[in-house]
C-alpha cells in the first residue's frame, strides 16, 4: 500500500497541508479507534467561497473516506491490524483553475479485540514412566500463543484427570513450557489430559480478557523400573512398589534321588516382571547354598531338580536368582529351604475308623468334647505310624478338615471352636499329619451336640443325683425326729380327747387318705429310708407341674418304688396324728422350697423337674429344657459360620 512512502511525504508536507489555499481542516492528523462505525467523523472541512473540495482519486486510502457536507467521514469500519494509518488527500479548486492539495493522516488506534492463538490446539506427547523430574515435556515454542493485538499473554495449566494436577506444571505465568513436577507411576495413572489457557490480560482485572485453550494429551508408557518379583509376595510399602516373597520350602528323602521336580511350598519357584506391560523374560539360577551341587534349577521354568542324592541330614538353604534377560541388573533373590528327611513309607493311620463324642450346647469355645456314652473322659483321637517301631510318630499333629465349629489340638483332643447352639450330630473329618513327611491320614469324628443339661452334669459336679439323695435323706430324718417329738408332746397333752373325736369322725370316712398314709410312716421311725422317699413323693404328687416323663423317672428309681407301695396302704389314724401330719406337710414344703432354690442356680425350672433330672441324668426331661433353648439356635449359628476369612492372593491382585 506504500503507507510508509506516504507517511514520509506527509511528514514533509505537513506544514503546508494544515491549511491549503481555499480549504482548511480542523485536524489534519486525527486519531480514530479501530472497529469504528461507518460514518465516523474524522475532521471538519472549511471551504472558502468559490472553492470546492474533493477527495483526490489518487489518494492511497481515498476509498475509505467520504465528504458529507463539511465533514470528512470514514465510509467503513477500519481494523488496526490491517490499516494502522490512513492517508487521504483533499483537493481544493476554484473557477479560476487554482488547485490546492490538503493531506490528512488518520492514525487508527489499537483496541484489544483479538484472542491469543496457539500454534496447535491439540497436542499429544508420549513419555516414559521414568521421565526425570524437571524434564521438559512440551517445548515452549509449541505452546506459545500469539496475539494480533500484541498483548502480553498469561498462561495457566490445568489437568482434567483427577489427581494428576500436581504432576505437570508450566515454567512461569508468561512461559508456557510444560515440565514434569513429580515422579510418575504407571500404576497410578497412564494418561493425563492437560488444558493450557492463554489469556491476553491478567486475570481479575477489569479489562477485556480473550482466552485461548490448547489441549495436551500425555500418554505414559511403562518403563522397566522394577526388578522381578517372586510369587507369592507381600507388599511392604503403601505405594505397592516393593513386593517381598517368603522362603520356598521343600523336602527330599535321605539318600534318594527324586526324578521329578521337587514340590515346594507355598508354590513352585516363579517370578514375574512387575513392569507387566514390558513383561521382560526372566531366567532362574542357583547362586548360593548348593553345596555338593545337589540341586539344579531350570533356567526357564524355575523347576528345582536333583543332580545327586543328599547324604547328610542337614537342610539346604539355596539362593535362587531371577534375572531379567534384557538387563541382568534387574534381579531378585529368593531363599529355598530343602529339608532332608528320613523316608516315610507309611502315612499316619487311625486305629479307629470312627470316633464318637458328645458335647452340650452353650459352652464357651475351647471346651472339651467328651467321649460318647456318658464317659467323663475327653475325646482324644490318635494315629499310628508304621514307619516307627513303636508306631508312635512324635511329629504327628491333628486338625479338623471340614468343620470350623470344632478344632483338634496337636495332641488329638477335640475341642469346640465356637459356642454351639444347634442340637445335632456334627460329622467331621479329622486328619493326622506327619509334619516332617507331610503325609496324612484321616478318620471320621461324630459329635452329638446335646442340650444344656449336660452342662450341669459335665461342668457343675457339685449336685449329682447321689448328693441330692443324701441331702434329702438328712432333711427327712431331721423332719421325722421333729415330728415324732411333736407327736409325743401332743399326745401327752390332748391324747384322750383327740383320740375320741377322731374315732368318731373317721368311722364315716373312706378308709385311707393321703395324710393318714404319711402319718403311718411317721409312726415307724425305723423305716427312715422309706420315709425319705415317701416324703419326697408326697410333695411331688400335689404338684401341678408333675409331668409324665418325671413320673417315669421316679418309677425308674428303685428307692422310690417302695415308697409308693407304702402310700397305697390305707390306714385310719387318730386326729392328733392328722394334725401332726399337717404340720409335717408344712415342713416338707419348706424343705421343698430350699431344694428348689438350690436347683434354680442351675436351671430356671421348678423343683420337681429339676429333681427328677438329678435322679436320672440320662432321662428324657432333657427335652423340657430343649424347647426353651432351641428358639435362637439357627440364626446365631449361621452368623458364626459367616465369620470365615479368605487370604488375599497377590497374583490375582496384581493381574
Ligand atoms: C527441579 O527444579 C527445581 C527448581 O529449579 C529444583 O529446586 C529441584 O531440586 C529440581 N528437582 C530435581 C529432581 O531435579
Ligand atoms: C520320599 O519318599 C516318599 C515315600 O516313598 C515319597 O512319597 C516321596 O515322593 C519321596 N520324596 C521325594 C522328594 O522323592
Ligand atoms: C515345573 O515348571 C512348570 C512350568 O513352569 C510348572 O508348571 C510346574 O509347576 C513346575 N513343577 C514344579 C514341581 O515346580
Ligand atoms: C532318621 O533315621 C535314622 C536311622 O534310622 C535315625 O537315627 C534318625 O534319628 C532319623 N531322623 C529323624 C529326623 O527321624
Ligand atoms: C466332613 O467330611 C465327612 C467325611 O468326609 C462327611 O461325612 C461330613 O459330612 C463332612 N462334614 C461337613 C460339615 O462338611
Can you characterise this structure?
The protein is an alpha+beta fold. It has 5 domains: 5-109, Immunoglobulin-like (Sandwich), CATH 2.60.40; 122-221, Sandwich (Immunoglobulin-like), CATH 2.60.40; 229-341, Immunoglobulin-like; 349-450, Immunoglobulin-like; 527-592 and 627-654, no CATH class. The chain is 25% helix and 30% strand. It is built from 12 helices and 37 strands. The chain has a 5-stranded antiparallel β-sheet. The longest helix is centred in the C-terminal third of the chain and has 42 residues, at 465-506.
Highest-level CATH class of the largest domain: Mainly Beta
Ligands, deduplicated: 2-acetamido-2-deoxy-beta-D-glucopyranose
Are there runs of 5+ residues with pLDDT below 50, and where? 6-17, 454-462, 505-579, 588-649, 651-655
Q: Name the CATH architecture of the largest domain.
A: Sandwich
Tell me the CATH superfamily of the largest domain.
Cadherins
Stated plainly, the CATH topology of the largest domain is called Immunoglobulin-like
Per DSSP, what share of the residues sits in E-state strands of 2 or more residues?
A: 25-35%
- The helical percent reads 10-25%
- Average pLDDT number: 77
What coarse outline follows from CA principal-axis ratios?
elongated
Evaluate the radius of gyration: 56 Å
How many helices in DSSP terms?
12
The neighbouring-strand order within the major sheet is 1-2-4-7-6
End-to-end span in angstroms?
Answer: 70 Å
Number of strands: 37
Q: Supply the helix-strand structural class.
A: alpha+beta
Largest sheet: 5 strands, antiparallel
The figure for the number of domains is 5
Amino acid at each position: 500500500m506504500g503507507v510508509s512512502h506516504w507517511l514520509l511525504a506527509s511528514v514533509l508536507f505537513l506544514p503546508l497541508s494544515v491549511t491549503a489555499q481555499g480549504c482548511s481542516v480542523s485536524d489534519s492528523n486525527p486519531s480514530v479507534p479501530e472497529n469504528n462505525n461507518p460514518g465516523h467523523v474524522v475532521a471538519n472541512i472549511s471551504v472558502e467561497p468559490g472553492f470546492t473540495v474533493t477527495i483526490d482519486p489518487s489518494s492511497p486510502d481515498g476509498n475509505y473516506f467520504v465528504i458529507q457536507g463539511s465533514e470528512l467521514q470514514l465510509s467503513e469500519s477500519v481494523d488496526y491490524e490491517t490499516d494502522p494509518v490512513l492517508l487521504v488527500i483533499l483537493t481544493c479548486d476554484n473557477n479560476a483553475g487554482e488547485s490546492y492539495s490538503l493531506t490528512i493522516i488518520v492514525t487508527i488506534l489499537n483496541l484489544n479485540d483479538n484472542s491469543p492463538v496457539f500454534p496447535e490446539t491439540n497436542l499429544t506427547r508420549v513419555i516414559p514412566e521414568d521421565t526425570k523430574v524437571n524434564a521438559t515435556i512440551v517445548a515452549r515454542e509449541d505452546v506459545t500463543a500469539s496475539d494480533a493485538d500484541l498483548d502480553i499473554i498469561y498462561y495457566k495449566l490445568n489437568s482434567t484427570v483427577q489427581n494428576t494436577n500436581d504432576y505437570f506444571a508450566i515454567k512461569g505465568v508468561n512461559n508456557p513450557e510444560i515440565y514434569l513436577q513429580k515422579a510418575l507411576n504407571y500404576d497410578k495413572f497412564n494418561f493425563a489430559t492437560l488444558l493450557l489457557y492463554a489469556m491476553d490480560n491478567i486475570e481479575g482485572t477489569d479489562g477485556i480478557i480473550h482466552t485461548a485453550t490448547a489441549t495436551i494429551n500425555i500418554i505414559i508408557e511403562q518403563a522397566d523400573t522394577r526388578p522381578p518379583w517372586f510369587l507369592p509376595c507381600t507388599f511392604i510399602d503403601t505405594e505397592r512398589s516393593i513386593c517381598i516373597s517368603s522362603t520356598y520350602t521343600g523336602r527330599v528323602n535321605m539318600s534318594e534321588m527324586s526324578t521329578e521336580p521337587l514340590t515346594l511350598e507355598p508354590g513352585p519357584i516363579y517370578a514375574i516382571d512387575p513392569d507387566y506391560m514390558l513383561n521382560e523374560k526372566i531366567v532362574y539360577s542357583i547362586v548360593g547354598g548348593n553345596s555338593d551341587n545337589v540341586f539344579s534349577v531350570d533356567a526357564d521354568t524355575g523347576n528345582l531338580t536333583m543332580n545327586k542324592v543328599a547324604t547328610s541330614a542337614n537342610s539346604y538353604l539355596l539362593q535362587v536368582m531371577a534375572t531379567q534377560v534384557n538387563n541382568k541388573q534387574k534381579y531378585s533373590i529368593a531363599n529355598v529351604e530343602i529339608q532332608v528327611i528320613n523316608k516315610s513309607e507309611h502315612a499316619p493311620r487311625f486305629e479307629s475308623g470312627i470316633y464318637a463324642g458328645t458335647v452340650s450346647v452353650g459352652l464357651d469355645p475351647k471346651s472339651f468334647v467328651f467321649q460318647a456314652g456318658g464317659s467323663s473322659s475327653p475325646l482324644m483321637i490318635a494315629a499310628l505310624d508304621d514307619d516307627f517301631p513303636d508306631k508312635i510318630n512324635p511329629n504327628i499333629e491333628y486338625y479338623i478338615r471340614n468343620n470350623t465349629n470344632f478344632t483338634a489340638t496337636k495332641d488329638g483332643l477335640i475341642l469346640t471352636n465356637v459356642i454351639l447352639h444347634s442340637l445335632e450330630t456334627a460329622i467331621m473329618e479329622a486328619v493326622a499329619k506327619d509334619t516332617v513327611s507331610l503325609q496324612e491320614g484321616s478318620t471320621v469324628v461324630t459329635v452329638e451336640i446335646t442340650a444344656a443339661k449336660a452342662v450341669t452334669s459335665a461342668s457343675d459336679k457339685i449336685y449329682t443325683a447321689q448328693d441330692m439323695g443324701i441331702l434329702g435323706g438328712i432333711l427327712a430324718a431331721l423332719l421325722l425326729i421333729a415330728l415324732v417329738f411333736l407327736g409325743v408332746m401332743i399326745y401327752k397333752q390332748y391324747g384322750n380327747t383327740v383320740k375320741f373325736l377322731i374315732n368318731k369322725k373317721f368311722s364315716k370316712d373312706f378308709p385311707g387318705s393321703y395324710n393318714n398314709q404319711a402319718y403311718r410312716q411317721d409312726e415307724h421311725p425305723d423305716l427312715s429310708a422309706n420315709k425319705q422317699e415317701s416324703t419326697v413323693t408326697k410333695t411331688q404328687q400335689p404338684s401341678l407341674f408333675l409331668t409324665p416323663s418325671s413320673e417315669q423317672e421316679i418309677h425308674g428309681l428303685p428307692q422310690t418304688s417302695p415308697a409308693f407301695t407304702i402310700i397305697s396302704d390305707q390306714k385310719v389314724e387318730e386326729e392328733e396324728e392328722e394334725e401332726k401330719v399337717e404340720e409335717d406337710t408344712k415342713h416338707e414344703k419348706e424343705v421343698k422350697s430350699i431344694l428348689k432354690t438350690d436347683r434354680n442356680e442351675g436351671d430356671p425350672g421348678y423343683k420337681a423337674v429339676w429333681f427328677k433330672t438329678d435322679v436320672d441324668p440320662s432321662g428324657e426331661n432333657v427335652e423340657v429344657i430343649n424347647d426353651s433353648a432351641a428358639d435362637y439356635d439357627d440364626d446365631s449359628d449361621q452368623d458364626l459360620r459367616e465369620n470365615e476369612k479368605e487370604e488375599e492372593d497377590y497374583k490375582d491382585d496384581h493381574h
